[in-house]
Amino acid sequence: MNHWIGIGRLTTDPIVTETHGETPMKVARYNIAVDRNKTEADFIQCTCFGRTAEFAEQYLHKGTKIAVDGRIQTGSYKDKSGDTKYTWTVVVNQTEFCEPKKTIETEAPSQDDWTPPWE
Question: Which of 17, 56, 57, 69 is the most exposed place for a label (fewest CB within 10 A)?
């Protein structure tokens, strides 16, 4: 079984692109920092598609703490010198927030900004 679950914070805003073809689909890529212990973290590359990517584009931002549920996908490529490099990413099936949404405090306008309604 290939199943991965992790909790971490986004290190940057998601990078969102779109596939080409008959049915274009959004693809979002981002990294999360997952605490290994009190002083170390692992940086996990995540990729999501379709509605999950649209969710990431709209709601996820650098610093957001999320839980990710997905599978590990491996790959490889040749670098400029011809050496084979191996990669892995978590293909995200589901994302959940791990902290409540921060409330935006609205401030009353200062007296200098306020104008009476009759003016």
Answer: 17
Quick one: DSSP state of residue 56?
H
Neighbouring residues of 16: CB distance < 8 A, sequence distance ≥ 6: 26, 27, 28, 29, 53, 56, 57
Q: Which residue has the tokens 């290994």?
A: 36
pLDDT in tens, 85-118: 999 999 999 999 998 876 433 444 444 444 444 4
Q: Is 82 exposed, middle or buried (0-12, 13-18, 19+ CB in 10 A)?
A: exposed
What is the amino acid identity at position 90? Answer: V
Topology at the third CATH level for domain 4-97 = OB fold (Dihydrolipoamide Acetyltransferase, E2P) (2.40.50)
Please say whether the beta carbons of 25 and 50 come within 8 A: yes
Nearest partner of 91 among 9, 30, 15, 35, judged by Cα: 30
